[in-house]
Structure formats: C-alpha cells, structure tokens
C-alpha cells in the first residue's frame, strides 16, 4: 500500500469505531478535548442509541453512539480509530482505507508482518493482502514512517512497555536472552472481563495466565529482531487486582558484559529527546503514569549475575492503547507529537529523572 500525506485539513475529523470499549471511550474523550482534531461519529454495536456519557460519565462525551455505517461515516472523516477485536477489525479497516480514510487499528490484525505467524496465533486473516503494509504504531520506533502512513497498527499494551524497556539494548544487538514478567490490571481483559468470571475471583489475588504462549510474544520478538536483536523471549503475564495499569519486569542476559554506567548512558541517550519516555532513578510504579501517555523506565545491572534488569510502567489503556493512538495520529497529520496529550501540547523535558 503506497503511503501518502493527506491533503491539508484545518481540523481533521476522526471516527471512533468501537467507542463503547474502554480504549475506544478514552480515544473519544481525547479527540473531543484535542485542540486540532474534531470528534466525528462514534460507533458501537449493542450500545447504539446511548450517549457515551451514560456508559462512562468520567469522560464527559455527550455524543450518541451509532451503528457503524462504513460508507456514510467514512465519507465524513479524514481518520478513524478502530477498536474492534482481531478478525472483526480487518474488514472495517479495509473498507475505510478504500474510502481514503487514514486508519489506526487497535486490534492485532496488522501488527505481525508475517502472514504465517499471524495464522499460527490468530487463524485465517480476512485481508491477508494488507499484512506487512501497515506501520507499527510505536512513535518512539517508527516516527518517520508514521508521518506518511495510511494504516497504523496500534501495538499491544504489553509490547509497548516491553519494547520501550528493551529497545536500547536490542538496538545495540546486545540481547542474548530475555525473560519478561508482566502484570496488568483487569481492564486489560476488556469490558467482557475474559480473565475471570467475577470480582470475587480477582480481588486479593494474583495469577499468571497463558504461561506457555501469549499472543503478544511473537509481536515482541518481531520488533526486537527488527531493532537489532534476534532473540527468543520468555513472556509470562499476570493479572493483578487493580483496574488499570501495567508493569513489566524484564531480565536480560547480554551478548557481552556491560557496566552499569554504560547501560545507563545507553538509555539516557536513547530517550533524551522523547517527550513520553522517562528514565528514572528507581523502579517506577503504575500510579505515577495513570491516565497519562508516559512510560517510566528504570534500568540497572545486577552485579551477581551480570543481567540487566529493566522495569517499565505504563497505563495500559492510555500509553498502552488509546493515548498512544492519538500520539500516532498527531504524527500522521504533521502536528507536534504532544498535542492534546500534555497541558498546552508542548514537549516535556525528557531523559533522566529523579
């Protein structure tokens, strides 16, 4: 698919398809509050006819949810954020692209570049001709490509935290082995709460799931390989009794020894100019990034083993999904990356923080 730069539009309108989900609702809120983008139609299936504020009073979006009409809605907007499950997303994405709408897809349908790998993990793909033609929507890795992209695949929330934490080492070809211990709040399961059947089974308990094969593993391995380290990853997610937030603890064995000073310098240099990545002096926590587009990272070398320990914290619904989509949309439309995501939309001071 050839990339293009859209014709200039003063206030591009954005469709939110699947706005009744957690991430879709936040995306609608962020677009409504955005100083440049305008909120176009917002859609849902079962909840069509309700105002979004009735489902999520905290977001203060008064717009009425509609049933998706790809032809009608697509003609009204310049961009769309699609918040459907995998396989259900691809046909909608294809139809919107055919109308000239620039699309950010939040599902897994276009994250993997190899069709065979996708089919191993997700089954048959509705539009295999589009595989490998999207831009991976992690601006810290693919900023230049996003600027002219028509189709952007929003990264998974776990891969966002893991890749931002590991990329400075991967880019140096330094990763020999990686173990990722990841923890997420219950919102990561979506409104259907697929990880558990009731509040009683979640509260006051921590549990691992999909311990031998989570779908985010091939996504992480793909991007680490593209960054410079072809490495197999052990990835174990855990469900923790909080509503939102995500914490990744990664333990990396390196191809060659690195001093703590050298590793710290590598991270400081990698993220010195990044407005949404903060390298901090001690292990971060999820409260410090809640309802923000920030990722906070702490890195240290364990003297006993020589392993590098990386700790990354994000809000899984914001930097892990919705606000990261807005960050990518800003890049796609030539806006400052922080527009609508920080007070005043201006970059912060990045790099090493206390």
Please tell me about this protein's structure:
- The chain has 11 helices and 15 strands.
- It has helices at 22-33, 52-55, 70-74, 89-98, 115-122, 139-146, 157-170, 199-202, 216-227, 260-270, 322-332; strands spanning 13-17, 38-43, 65-66, 79-82, 102-105, 135-136, 151-153, 175-184, 207-208, 233-239, 246-254, 277-280, 295-301, 308-314, 351-353.
- Strand 2, helix 2 and strand 3 (65-66) form a beta-alpha-beta unit.
Keywords:
354 residues; Dihydrodipicolinate Reductase, domain 2; disordered N terminus; alpha/beta; seven-stranded parallel beta sheet; Rossmann fold; eight-stranded mixed beta sheet; 11 helices; 2 domains
Radius of gyration from the alpha-carbon trace, in angstroms:
20 Å
| Major β-sheet annotation | 8 strands, mixed
- Class of secondary structure makeup: alpha/beta
Tally of contiguous helical segments: 11
| CATH C-level category of the largest domain | Alpha Beta
Distance between termini?
A: 44 Å
Number of domains: 2
Strand content: 15-25%
CATH architecture tag of the largest domain? 3-Layer(aba) Sandwich
Q: Helicity, in percent?
A: 25-40%
What is the spatial order of strands in the main beta sheet? 9-10-8-11-14-13-12-15
Low-confidence stretches: 1-6, 345-354
Name the CATH homologous superfamily of the largest domain: NAD(P)-binding Rossmann-like Domain
DSSP, total strands: 15
CATH fold naming of the largest domain = Rossmann fold
